[in-house]
Amino acid sequence: MTATRQDAWTPDDDLLLAEVSLRYIRDGGTQLAAFEEVGMRLGRTAAACGFRWNSAIRKNYESAIQLAKTQRQERKRAKRKVREDVHVEYQENTSSMESEGSTAVPAVASRSNEMEEELSFEVVIRFLRNQKDAMKRMKHADKELEARTREVEQLRAENEELKKELSLAKADHQVVNDDYRALIQIMDRARKLAILGDAEEVDMKPRFKMDANGNLERVNHGKL
Asked: Using an 8 Å Cβ cutoff, are 108 and 97 in contact?
């Protein structure tokens, strides 16, 4: 069944994609095979996994990618060295047996078997030693990758906390801004009321005039 997931990638999904991709790089596999494995495990398409890797994940693991490539080259060199050593020793032993002549065939055959057993034993020992060194380097690389992964997760968590703090700061700023506007409106209304109050006070002052008989007459009673 074709994977059709459309939900967002979680940090665990991204970590799985990175681990599988780095493993395939280290082991000499293809990216397509890595994306297909991740897609099967997450229920996504290989194309979606490839897009996620190239657009968002790869840039965070550049150092780990270079280390995985270096380990892949070391493995290739180790295998090539073992094959070369086996070939050289085989050629030397064959030449040595041929130089003893055909009259010593039984002895040569016996010696050949002994040398082959010795050669195989030395090759195995050399191979195991190389593998031991390679395993040490791989363990060191895995520890470094694990440390980088923890660092990425820590930075991601810190980023989320900073986003929350920024959101709260924006909300507080909006509240302060609203309170400031409300205060300005209150002060503006108070100023207008003060001006109107002064005008009413002026209108409330009584005014008088003198009539023809010399008596004072009030002509302005003010506003009630």
From this structure: yes
| Tokens linked to 49 | 């996994």
Block residue for tokens 């979680």: 10
Tokens of 179: 């309170």
Helices (H) and strands (E) in the chain, counts: 5, 2
The C-alpha atoms of residue 106 and residue 85 are separated, in whole angstroms, by 27
DSSP code per residue over 58-77: GGGGHHHHHHHHHHHHHHHH
Taking each helix axis from N to C end, the angle separating 62-99 and 105-204, rounded to the nearest 10 degrees, works out to 180
Q: What sign does the CA torsion over 185, 188, 194, 199 have?
A: negative
- Delimit the domains of the chain by residue range: 11-170
Rounded to the nearest angstrom, the gap between the alpha carbon of residue 1 and the centroid of all alpha carbons in its chain is: 30
Q: For the whole model, what pTM was predicted?
A: 0.38
pLDDT tens by residue, 99-152: 655 444 455 455 555 555 555 556 656 666 776 777 778 777 788 888 888 888
Return the amino acid letter for 80.
R
Are 141 and 133 in contact by the 8 Å Cβ rule? The answer is no
| Chain Cα centroid distance, residue 17 | 11
Q: How far from each other are the two terminal CA atoms of the chain, in whole angstroms?
A: 88
Q: Compute the C-alpha angle 12/46/41, nearest 5°.
A: 45
Give long-range contacts, CB 8 A cutoff, 24+ apart: 139-145. Answer: 141/26, 141/67, 141/68, 141/71, 144/64, 144/67, 145/22, 145/64, 145/67
